[in-house]
Amino acid sequence: MKFRNFLPLVLLALLAAGCSTIDSRIKEKSATFAGLDAPTQEKLRKGRVEVGYTKDMVYIALGQPDERKEHVTGQGQTETWIYTSTYDEYAGTAHVGYRRRFVRDSRSGATYVYLEPVFSDVYQELTEETIRIIFKDGRVEAMEESK
Description:
Elements: H1 3-18, H2 22-28, H3 30-34, H4 38-45, H5 55-62, E1 67-73, E2 76-104, E3 111-136, E4 139-145
Antiparallel strand pairs: 1-2, 2-3, 3-4
């Protein structure tokens, strides 16, 4: 078998290895997860976060944030984790060029070339903030969630 036959399998394995799942995060933070009561463990498995949770608990529930920000004020230091969602939105149809069309005249035998306009659907990639979690002293102080 040639290498090109293995390429899709190699790419799939690399993709799977780089994905963070709830089970992989629980395994990674097993000491934290094992120290929690059963109802809290179930909330984390469902991706739910509550005020008072630690950074490890939020990581188990939601994974790595897409963005982190640190804030220093007179009341102390806070850290904000921001999770986003990316999706494609239909933006309409656009003229993308022309296509040659050959038409043969059956009477004269001549061939004519016409240029037909070509249109294509256009999508724009949008990123939307879905969850913002604010930590103070290593624990969730506030949460904002898009509805």
